[in-house]
Amino acid sequence: MSKYHYKDKFGGEPNLVADVTKTALMIFLKRMNTQYFAKALELREAVQKLLSYIPATFPHYTSHSVEHSDEIISQISQLLFKNQNSIKATVNLSPTEAYILIASAYLHDAGMVASDREKMEIIASERWKCWLSTEGPSKRFFEIEKLRNDLFVEESIRQFLADRQLRFLIGEFIRKEHHIRSTQILQQNQSELGRFAFDDPDLQRAISDVCLSHGLDYNELDTDRYPDRRTIRGELVNMRFFAILLRVGDLLDTVNDRACPLLINAASPLPADSFAHWSKYQRIVHRLTAPDRIEITARCKNQDEHRFLHDWFTWLVKELKNAAISIIRCQLHNNWKPPVAEISTSSHPGNINIFPADDALYIPMDWKFEFDTDLVFKRLISDVYDSQSAFLRELIQNALDATRCQVYIDLKNCSLTLPKYPTEISETIRNKYPINIKLYEQEFTNELSGVREIKQVLSVEDFGIGMTEEIIQKYLLQVGKSYYTTEDFLRNYHFHPTSQYGIGFLSVFGVSSKITLETYSPKKVGRPISLNLAGPRSYILVEKSDRNKNGTKITLVLDEPFETGDLEKIVRYWCKKVEFPIVLEDLGNQILITSEKPEDFIYEIPEIIEPYGKYSIRCFPIQASGLEGEIYVFAHSTSESESWADLNYAKNYIIDHPQAQIPTLPSDLTCIHGITIRHYNQLKNNCQLSIRVDFRDNSLKPSLSREKVRIPFRDENRLDPRIENRLVQILSDHLQTTSLASGNNEWIYKQRLIRNISFLEEFWNGIPRSIRMFLGGIPRLFSLKEIKSVEKIIAIVFPYEIENLKRRKFKLPEIAIPFNSLDSSVPVITEIDMELLSKEHNKAIFDNRVITNVSILPNGFLGVEWQLGISTIKLKDTIELAFFDSSDFFGAVLHKTSDTVYSQIVLNENNIFIQWLLNLKSMCESEDHGLSSRQFSHIIDLVEKVVRYNDYPELLNHLNNWRNMGEISDQLDSLQVCSNEREFYISGKKMIVLNKYMLLM
């Protein structure tokens, strides 16, 4: 049998151990109805088996076993019976009511049980994906995936730890939804749970609804589901009362058994927040539950425990205050008074006390943030939004969500399939639900001057679900709360709403001080309502309305008028991919605005210079789960091929012919649920294509103003995977069909594509035949991935004369590259080929490589050997050291290996002057002779000028100033440095520029 425990008022060991059947509530039930009592015991036994699986599935949870249910029954019993006397009930409780309370206590956590199959279904569900897109879970899931892919941790260990953390995350998701899951389990497992409802659907529904209530927000305890009077099995019951008692009883279970130290040790390692959730119960040293008052005393070890307990008991106090308000409105049991419970503060003693333990190091304070309500309203109305037209977008968004709800209701009533996203509903049906926007002029009397004046009036009307008085009070008038985030919405509708933050309606007060809201919801509790609002803090006037159609109409008398045509521009701008028609009446002109279509952007124009050439925009639809839209590609077609890399040429060739038309490419567009997001595009660079997409899931999280997008834990330059996959498919098909992507020069076209569509890094890395290398002088084509795996490559740097011809745009002579002087087994890339590569591939080839040798080849060529590895000595970002096969060479200018504007420089470790520089570097780093790294940085800058620009006089003058510096100047003197106007001498040898590298003559 179960036992419950509590400490005495001095915090000693438990002084009472009792069987749950000895509680006043169970004794009352046994006396009043033995059949109910027997069923309660039978149910307890069935639930005990069911709940025993919770620790096996989620070992980091506090106890949600049958003992927790026993304790709730004990707490409810102490709330309802004086001195635990079953005769002295504080309300006239019926046997059916007692049984509903007990059954709900046993079954309310049934949703915490989840089989492995159910967990797999959860991971595949949309609700899981939606939940993962929120900030907290998104961060934790990112960390789990980061751990799973951490190559520095052994494979089996990281997979074990990642799987364990994922189990914790799934557990958190189930905990969040377990009250909903409990109702589903009750419906599906009647026989396993002992026919707890006696096959009575009314009793089953009542118990199920009470179980659901313990996870709902207080505002969601609607009168439909939780009336104060309902007849069940011939007895009156108060559903609202049951919900109150279960919620309070659940919060009052703070016994030590719920935080067993042995269980904590067995479950470790566990999430830190779970440990705090567990350990907080261990700090309670006194508690009392009675019909008239609740007393709790806790002594905490640290701030986290204090904060958790304070939040927990604040929640309890709030529940009791809400209960007092709610019960007084009931007709049944309205004589019940919730017990007094107040948290002590420094200025006001209460009966719930949270103290630091004697050995605690923290100091509790009553400090908390306070809000200046007027200032906060001002910020939310005026400062959140970048655009003054944002109020119209907010009204349209609200109208769209309400319309979507109504469409789903109508589809359900017609027994039609409910699609996952509203855009999947046929256009014929959607066209029956227009959003009406009307701008007109009306004459008003100025309240100050009495003068008649003309004002513009704007109305936005939908034919959606409308609002009941309850919805208006709970959500419209509650800043920061949105109906579209409630459990009620999530249960009844499966699409992702646009409205989430509950502040959008405030934006109307930035443009109007005369607002009328007419709404009608055809529910049984609904009636037409008209609200008159003058501001967020003003008194709201409510009138009866004669509106007889479901939906909402919001009318604003505008403070400032729209300019002619502006309203249409604004609506078209925001509503690029809205799935419902918008009927706009703009000062008498009626305009129909619908979602954009590919035909709006597709065109074909002739190329004037090429006889059979043409420019066109190709459209490729994207149709993935939660994402819709198009990819538009600029194409240049000739009689022989089609190129997707000629947009820049097409924009500039018009200067060659007066009849040439300027081709255009659609701009990028990102929408969320059909509404434009101003400051977010999928593509961050100029390229050959545009992406216009509409996110219908919650993978993009808009900011509070909805004008920007927050992308936590993801590179902003990375495409959404669904777009990336579609684009990869499109490009793969193109490379298979265009003749430009075949033959000996196919790599050049592929590199042009990479240059223009560079963000598909992984795709381009594996594209075959995209880079030309030479083996034994014979050209071969490779992928970047293949080249990056090669241990050693050689880069051929051209002589200065050839570089000079290239810079002057002269025709290059036939170049005889000395391949015979190189190892035929090592891939060779030439400087000319490097200039045809995209900067991304050019950089990637040399990433994680170091120069190991520089060979002087015939006819002034350089052979630069690059080996896989990381440079140990780098004098500057673009200056490296390497061994030349001749000591005469000072250094050389190579090719570009990074995104910088400068080419790479390599200095010769085999050269006497460079050796002196390295000795100087060592002395500067160790600060010998009063030297510092600043002095070495300066001399390296001067050396770079010599190598890059043949500008050596400044270096020579600087070196002359190093005289009389002791050991370092002696070394310098041995070099016998001297100069004239055009020559630089070291050790009696003249240094000049030969080709692009320095040579000691």
Q: Trace the largest sheet across and list its strands.
A: 12-11-10-13-9-8-14-15
Shape: globular
Percent of residues in beta strands: 15-25%
Count of alpha and pi helical runs: 32
Overall number of strands: 38
Biggest β-sheet, characterized?
A: 8 strands, mixed
The radius of gyration over CA amounts to 38 Å
Query: How helix-rich are the residues, as a percent range?
Result: 25-40%
Head-to-tail CA distance between termini? 101 Å
Keywords: ATP-binding, Chaperone, Nucleotide-binding
Protein name: Chaperone protein
GO molecular function: ATP binding; ATP hydrolysis activity; ATP-dependent protein folding chaperone; unfolded protein binding
Family: Belongs to the heat shock protein 90 family.
Features:
1001 residues; alpha+beta; Heat Shock Protein 90; eight-stranded mixed β-sheet; 32 helices; 38 strands; 37% helix; 19% strand; globular; disordered N terminus; disordered C terminus
Structure summary:
By secondary structure, the chain is an alpha+beta fold.
Descriptive notes:
- With 1001 residues, the chain is of the alpha+beta class.
- Among the domains are: 3-356, no CATH class; 375-593, 2-Layer Sandwich (Heat Shock Protein 90); 601-696 and 707-734, no CATH class.
- Helix content is 37%, strand content 19%.
- It has 32 helices and 38 strands.
- The strands form 9 sheets. The protein has an 8-stranded mixed beta sheet with strand order 12-11-10-13-9-8-14-15, with helices on one face.
- A hairpin with a 4-residue loop joins strand 18 and strand 19.
- Helix 1 packs across helix 2 (34-51).
- It is globular, with a radius of gyration of 38 Å.
- The N and C termini lie far apart (101 Å).
- The model is unreliable at 1-17, 256-272, 807-812 and 974-1001 (pLDDT under 50).
